[in-house]
Structures are given as structure tokens and as C-alpha cells.
Amino acid sequence: MPHREMHRSHNVGWLRAAVLGANDGLISTSSLVVGVAAAGTPRSAVLISAIAGAVAGALSMAAGEYVSVSSQGDTEQADLAREKRELAQNPQGELAELTAIYESRGLDKELAAQVAQKLTEHDALTAHAREELGMSEITLARPFQAAMASAAAFAVGAFPPVALTATLPQDWLAPGLIGSTLAVLLVLGATAARLGGASMFKGAARVAFWGAVAMACTFGIGRLFGTTV
Prior knowledge:
Blueprint: H1 12-38, H2 43-89, H3 91-104, H4 109-131, H5 143-167, H6 173-196, H7 200-228
Helix pairs in contact: 1-2, 1-5, 1-6, 1-7, 2-3, 2-4, 2-5, 3-4, 5-6, 6-7
């Protein structure tokens, strides 16, 4: 019976985009609201700022991820096209190159040649993409998936500060939002670390730290401009 192993590397594409989107949605929206509220702005204006920031941020995340990952995909396709041409023009040279790669990894020359030959006969382009270019099905760029994951995650992350802005009393808005945001960031950081197999404490601490820095900066700016205006 084959032994099944559970690895987390297949989560890398959507996990990176989802964690980035959720953290960005929570931190940026909360920081915006904290800064605007600290300036003494009326609740209606603070709520409009929160909603506008959430919508703009989600669309920006989707566009940014799509363009970024599409650029990665273009590079991958260009490399694959070049490798395909080289396989057609110089198959023996490419076979020797693949053999050398396996030799460098510890196989003796005869076995390396056999492995390279078999893989070339099976699927030469896939073998060279994996061994020479470091590409695999897991790491290939997926622009649309990354864009949708980022936008959805940003919207989810932005929801708590928007909801709190609509419900908390004006005097409690900034401190309540700061405390709630830090608590959610701790959970998000720990969850992301858990999914990725990393330390939950470190994951939670680093996310909460940078969230606290961002909100402290915008709170200070809001107080400064609210005092001078």
C-alpha cells in the first residue's frame, strides 16, 4: 500500500495571496479609520472613508496581484518556449545537460544518463522545466486565482473595521478599533502560520507588531492635523 504524505507546499499560491489580502484589508482599513477618527471627524465621514477604503483596497489588491502574477506567468512561458526550441534544435545537448544535473545531485554517470533518457522519452519539456528552471505544477503562476483570492481576502479583512465604525460610540471608536484589530491580527497570524507549518507565536507576533505600528502612525497623524486645523 503506497505511503501518503501530507505536504503544505500546494497551499503556497492561494495562501500567500489570501494572507496578504486579509492582513492588508484589516490593517489598512483600520489604520485609515483610526487616523480619520483621531482628527475629530464626524462619524458619517469616518464611515464613508472606511467603506471607500475597503472597496478601493479590494480592487487595488485584485489588480496588483493580477498584474504581478501575470508578469511572473509571462516570464515562465517565455522560459518554457525557449526550452522547447532548444530541445528541438539540440536534443542531444539538452539530454547531456539533464544528465549533468542528475550527476551533480549524487547519481553516478551511468544511472544519471539512464534517468535523463527515461524522463526525456516520457516528457522532455516537463523534465527540463522542473530540473533546469525549477518550475512545477505547484509553483506555476495563476493570475486570476491570485487576484480573486486577494480581493476576497481584503474584503473579509476590511469588514471588521467597517462594522465597528458603524456600531461603536464615537468616543470609543479609535481605542475599540485598535484593540479589536490587534486581536484579529493575532488570530490571522497564528492561523496563517498553522497552515504553513510555521511557529504560531512568531506568525501572530509579527503581524500584530506591524499592525500596531501602522495604526500608531495614522493615529498620530490624525491627532496632529486634527489639532492644527
